[in-house]
Amino acid sequence: MTTFDARASLSDLTTTVDRVRRSVENVIEGKPEVVRLALTVLLAEGHLLIEDVPGVGKTMLAKALARSIDCSVRRIQFTPDLLPSDITGVSVFDQQRKDFEFKPGAIFAQIVVGDEINRASPKTQSALLESMEERQVTIDGSTYELPSPFMVIATQNPVEMEGTYPLPEAQRDRFMARVSIGYPSPEAELQMLDVHGGVSPLDDLQAVAHAHEITKLVEAVRQVHIAPGVRRYAVDLVGATRHHPELRLGASPRATLHLVRAARAAAALDGREFVLPDDVQVLAPAVLAHRLLPTAQAQLNRRTPEHVVAEIVRRTPVPDPYGPGQRGRSSR
């Protein structure tokens, strides 16, 4: 893609994404950074895990993003009795045709909203593994492609909440980023009472972008340049998690790939054709922390993976985005 084409694509991207952002923020008040991360994951071809206590708008955020885009949307309510076939689909014998016919499950949509994913058993959660990574489903030896764009937005309550199962490590690793919405400010909560007091704002939400537009924007994000030094910076950050004394499980190579993809999308959202180290720094906690397992001693010391990632970001030298070398200074 030429420079002119890239600029034109980024211009279209910022215009379209701004429409989607305003649409979502009509429902989710006072959380612009959360909405931005959700859009970043969408453009980076990733999946989003929204984790927080009940009642702060996890499902509302997922549904608002899904309704703002004119595409197929399916919602899966994860419960302890949910079966893997409910998600992926099942082959049913057709008496008239004397043959098996595949009945697609809820995963066959462009945006899949998984509500309270950690209330289902790990076996059922694992039904998402192939679809999230390879964008396909294999049933009885036959492979079925999933539509494009494809994004899973899953919500979950903290593991200490009653009646939940922890997500398997392989499942968490499929999510590009994890975000916590948190409680709103008093001003935003007052505004919420005015807006949500009568009817749900989701009822009036209209699609402001089409699926084919999002597909084009994803292609534009892939063209964003990332210098070798910034690539190395992402590798250094992820590599540091694998040797940190307070972690018993570091981030995988998939995490490096997700971090780079997300950084490209963040740069595109800012209208830039290139990635800065700042893009990688800002996204590192959301992309890496949910994949890490702290040691027992770290847990006793109340050291969370977010604390460890913040420490790694501070200690890792930042590259010069305008040259191949490194400045040799620590992150601010």
From TrEMBL:
Under the heading SUPFAM superfamilies, the entry gives: P-loop containing nucleoside triphosphate hydrolases
Pfam families membership: AAA_3, AAA_lid_2
**Occurrences of domain ChlI/MoxR AAA lid (ranges):** 240-311
Task: Specify the ATPase AAA-3 domain's residue ranges.
Answer: 47-176
Output the PANTHER family linked to this UniProt entry: METHANOL DEHYDROGENASE REGULATOR, MOXR FAMILY PROTEIN
Question: What's the protein called, per UniProt?
Answer: MoxR family ATPase
What is the originating organism of this protein? Streptantibioticus rubrisoli
* Lineage of producing organism: Bacteria, Bacillati, Actinomycetota, Actinomycetes, Kitasatosporales
